[in-house]
Amino acid sequence: MRSSHHRNHHARRLLCLTALACFVAGGAAYACTHKAAVPQLPELPAESLAQPAEYGVQQSTLTAAQAQAMLDDPRMILVSRTHPITEDYPVETKECGSATAINKTLQTEAADAFLSMQAAAAKDGVDVRMQSGYRSVSYQKKLYDNKTQYYRDKGLSEAAAREKAAAIVNPPGCSEHNCGLAADLNSPEHTTLDTGFADTAAFRWLCENAEQYGFILRYPKEAESVTGITYEPWHWRYVGPENAALLNQSGLCLEDAVAVLQRIAAGETVTG
């Protein structure tokens, strides 16, 4: 018998497929009104896959071509230790960080979205600031190498030093900050980047409104076993408004959503 946790995960995957299918209907309109290089979804017949599924949920009508179009959206790029990016990954940036920010830029579209979100929060009396944004792969390498050297100097072997360093600083190309779409956010009421940010008005506002501006909470508590990253309430990722909406509706983290899309794009009938 399946556990309740497994059933819930199964249901969330199916809900994701439903949300993806709903997005197909509105995706073309979005692509026509935004300047970003987002691939338009192909106009394909909606082949019904609505056979009865477990737990009373139906299968998705999303086609393989439509799933592939979403995977090709550059804002949906998955960056992690198992999905590193190269040093020549193209990034055009714009400044949007606070005066005290360590890295003040994001990809231009993400920066514009953040500034709009920041202005909207300010109208509601909430002060949201970006403390760290884009880091080049070469800059990430310096951080990682410096931390590795720190542990070498403490007498650790090369392998042990690198492993210890990687627990604190992602290796080059493995941090979301390297793609220019991730922002570490804080506010005057809580300036440090730690779980205390979850108790602020800024975090509550973001949870209610960030989706409208294309940002998602990238590393939530319930996804730690999938993302490999502990809960980070300060780390927000730009994926675009429509993608943010479907990800939040599905309850899936980016890793799970991409995995589902890849299965559909490969021609597999996915039921969870």
Describe, in plain words, how this protein is organized in 3D.
There is one protein chain. This protein has 272 residues and is of the alpha+beta class. The chain has a domain at 1-72 and 242-272. The protein is built from nine helices and six strands. The protein has helices at residues 4-33, 64-71, 108-123, 137-153, 158-166, 201-209, 224-227, 241-250, 254-265; strands at residues 93-95, 105-107, 129-132, 182-186, 215-217, 235-238. Strands 3-4-6-5 form a four-stranded antiparallel β-sheet. Strands 1-2 form a two-stranded antiparallel sheet. Helix 1 runs antiparallel to helix 8 (241-250) and helix 2 crosses helix 9 (254-265). Mean pLDDT is 83; it is low at 1-11 and 21-58.
Number of helices: 9
Shape: globular
Task: Give the averaged pLDDT, no decimals.
Answer: 83
As a whole number of angstroms, the C-alpha radius of gyration is 20 Å
Task: State the order of secondary-structure elements, H for helix, E for strand.
Answer: HHEEHEHHEHEHEHH
Distance between the termini: 16 Å
- Order of the strands making up the biggest sheet: 3-4-6-5
Output the keywords.
272 residues
Helix-strand blueprint:
Elements: H1 4-33, H2 64-71, E1 93-95, E2 105-107, H3 108-123, E3 129-132, H4 137-153, H5 158-166, E4 182-186, H6 201-209, E5 215-217, H7 224-227, E6 235-238, H8 241-250, H9 254-265
Antiparallel strand pairs: 1-2, 3-4, 4-6, 5-6
